[in-house]
Write a structure and sequence with these properties.
Largest sheet: 8 strands, antiparallel
Strand order of the largest sheet: 12-11-10-6-5-17-18-19
Number of domains: 3
Number of strands: 19
Shape: globular
Distance between the termini: 52 Å
Strand content: 15-25%
Radius of gyration: 26 Å
Helix content: 40-55%
Number of helices: 24
Length: about 700
């Protein structure tokens, strides 16, 4: 592997420091401390590091090539067992336990350090000895301060702060290179070179492997090559069509980023080959493990099973320990420097192709008082960082020169009828887009004649929302809504627009929804002139906790967000499938958004590419791409974008009415009582009848 050669060159500079650190840490495993209350933490963490040292030496001696699958499985369990749900109550990675044992300040800080040290697992598999060494040195520095007496908390906090500050440039450079440089092909090499007919190869990534990944591989290995190729072709053609429909020249690009969850390597292997036919090398980078590179609990990249969703959620705001204006400015400088170093690869990067999964057990997190949270000042700093970082990325990978595609497939946890659901999902992903294109054009024609759209919930759903639409200057050549077929968003089935914020008012409500793998109950969003003015959910025993939950995970610490998208989903086939198998709560937003009207909070679908001309299949130019915030890019880019986009869907079963309101007050219904009633859309009701 070329990437391992690169890592090994870096390791040479850290070899002596590594050996000295490991020798000292080996002594700590049994060394008595003056203050016994911290002894267990340092002993257990030192033993974990020694375990990593042993693993790394075995890997350097080609153990991964010679070990049996059983040996690999046992090692995988040993590495991750501490954070598994059944053991988490007694883990120093659990802020509750760490605070109970070590006190609030020390517990939170040392819990964070242990979590960072757990990143050594993947560093060992990738043979990144240098990354392991700097974490060892941090651990030793902290331990040394617990000499004869307990050090002041502020002294320990300073140590961690300066560690994060000193090494953020290294971490950012590594991350950016992993994202754009095809030579960093650790995962791609496994996918393309290992035997995928069994399950042994899964343990070579260093990610946690559960029964889900094993069963997924076993199932995919029962499918004929023709079906695997069909899925890969749908995935890669959607990507190509995205460039074609946007009028972007794909031939100028050289790399594509593939993001996926382990278990689907047969499909990914074919996708890599098909992308090569388009002239694109595949970049497959791991979801971030270092705090400085993470965005809350989101998984961006490839990853294995999430060993414990609560663990991920508990550490979503660890940056609160070290975030201040000086650190963020240093981080932004490091980000710009990193992109400048790899500007040649960045320029030819085409964007992500994402294979999502669904079917996992829905997760409703426990909000812990012991977990780090950003204070109000840090929230504003974080928003500033995300906005500025988005602008930096856009400088090196321009939004109007890139595209994407997303497709979703189920995993075995979806239910006993996994094989049937998988087959049904394949059918949904390969529906006749020409049929939908024509039906959706009828809907767009009706919408284009209106000034606003009224959406009304049914029964206990209290949605009552009016969306203000852009006005057309030349109806013969222009349109407001995009006719979305199976390209960037697979499966087919929606028409969408960027609403006019001013005049968009009302309440958006959904009884239950999953957004970025988190569950929301009775989610209510109030909009005033297109901006979020209030919000609530019923997840917790107090309204304040619900507001904080939404602020963190939907608003991403912004005081407010605009409504960036209004869409009408038309994929009734997907909806009926979800109802048939009782899996509506397990579907990803990618499919769920096609199963009713949806509304996105944050940026529009055209962020950073508003000035690019885009046309519907009928030849009309889509002109509703801006709103009053994105239009500010021409004056002050920092005020134009929010760098988030979260779709919220109302299912047909909770929908009473969608109607177009004309300037003269007349109305045309599109959906009534969860069924399409507009002339020319009758075919969309067929799945309900069946």
């Amino acid at each position: 592997m070329k990437c391992r050669e690169i890592y090994r060159e870096e390791n040479e500079t850290a070899a002596e420091r590594f050996e000295l650190s490991m020798e000292r840490i080996g002594q700590i495993c049994t060394e008595e401390m003056n203050d016994k209350s911290f002894e267990e933490y340092f002993h257990r963490t030192a033993k974990f590091i020694c375990h990593i040292e042993t693993l790394l030496k075995k890997i350097e001696n080609d153990w991964l090539k010679t070990a049996s699958e059983e040996e690999l499985r046992e090692e995988n369990k040993a590495l991750y067992e501490d954070i598994l749900p059944e053991n988490y109550d007694k883990s120093f990675a659990n802020p509750d336990y760490a605070v109970e044992k070590l006190g609030k300040d020390y517990g939170q800080l040392l819990c964070f350090v242990y979590t960072e040290i757990r990143g050594m697992i993947v560093y060992a598999f990738e043979e990144r000895k240098s990354d392991i060494t700097i974490l060892c040195e941090l651990f030793l520095q902290l331990y040394t301060w617990f000499g004869e007496e307990i050090p002041a908390y502020e002294e320990l906090k300073d140590i961690v702060y300066w560690y994060m500050s000193d090494y953020c440039d290294v971490k950012l450079e590594q991350r950016v290179r992993d994202m754009v440089d095809p030579e960093m092909g650790f995962a791609r090499d496994i996918i393309m070179e290992e035997d995928l007919s069994g399950t042994r190869y899964l343990y070579l990534f260093g990610e946690y492997i559960s029964d889900s990944e094993l069963k997924t591989v076993e199932f995919l290995n029962t499918l004929p090559n023709a079906q695997i190729e069909k899925l890969a072709r749908t995935f890669t053609e959607g990507y190509r069509m995205g460039f074609e429909s946007a009028g972007i020249d794909l031939s100028k690009k050289k790399t594509v980023n593939i993001r996926y969850s382990l278990g689907f390597e047969r499909i990914i292997k074919e996708a890599v080959r098909m992308f090569e036919e388009m002239g694109l090398q595949s970049v497959i980078y791991r979801s971030a493990v270092a705090s400085v590179n993470k965005k809350q609990a989101l998984k961006i990249g490839y990853y294995g099973c999430v060993a414990n969703p609560q663990y991920e959620y508990d550490h979503r705001a660890d940056a609160a320990l070290y975030t201040d204006k000086a650190f963020v400015e240093r981080k932004l400088g490091a980000l710009r420097h990193a992109y400048d170093l790899y500007k040649d690869w960045s320029k030819v990067h085409a964007g992500p192709a994402v294979l999502e999964i669904f079917g996992e057990v829905p997760f409703a997190p426990t909000a812990k008082e012991t977990a780090y949270t950003l204070n109000e000042k840090q929230q504003k700093i974080q928003v500033y960082y995300q906005n500025t970082a988005g602008q930096i990325v856009n400088e090196y990978i321009p939004g109007d020169e890139r595209s994407f595609t997303i497709m979703a497939l189920p995993v075995p946890a979806v239910g006993e009828k996994f094989a049937e659901i998988f087959e049904e999902t394949v059918k949904i992903n390969t529906l006749d887009y020409k049929l939908y294109e024509g039906i959706q054009q009828n809907i767009i024609h009706a919408l284009d004649q209106g000034g606003s759209v009224h959406i009304l919930g049914k029964g206990s759903n209290c949605t009552d929302l009016t969306i203000n639409l852009h006005r057309l200057g030349n109806p013969e050549k222009e349109t407001i809504f995009e006719n979305c077929v199976a390209d960037v968003n697979i499966p087919v089935g929606e028409v969408f627009t960027s609403p006019v914020l001013e005049g968009t008012n009302g309440i958006l409500h959904v009884s239950e929804v999953f957004l970025n793998d988190l569950k929301y109950v009775d989610l209510k969003i109030e909009l005033k002139d297109g901006m979020v003015s209030d919000y609530s959910c019923g997840n917790f025993d107090s309204p304040e906790k619900g507001k904080k939950y939404i602020l963190e995970n939907v608003l991403y610490h912004h005081d407010t967000l605009p409504i960036g998208e209004f869409a009408i989903g038309t994929n009734t086939t997907a909806y009926v499938m979800a109802e048939k198998y009782g899996i509506a709560s397990k579907l990803p937003i990618l499919i769920a958004e096609k199963m009713g009207p949806h509304f996105a909070l944050g940026d529009t679908c055209y962020s950073f590419s508003e000035d690019q001309k885009i046309y519907n299949p009928d030849g009309k130019e889509i002109v509703a791409k801006d709103n009053s915030y994105s239009a500010l890019r021409k004056e002050d880019m920092s005020k134009a974008y929010f760098n988030c986009h979260t779709d919220i869907t109302i299912p047909y079963s909770e929908l009473e009415l969608i109607e177009v309101i004309h300037e003269d007050g007349s109305r045309v219904e599109i959906i009534r009582d969860g069924r399409f009633v507009l002339s020319g859309t009758e075919e969309l009701n067929r799945p309900f009848e069946k």
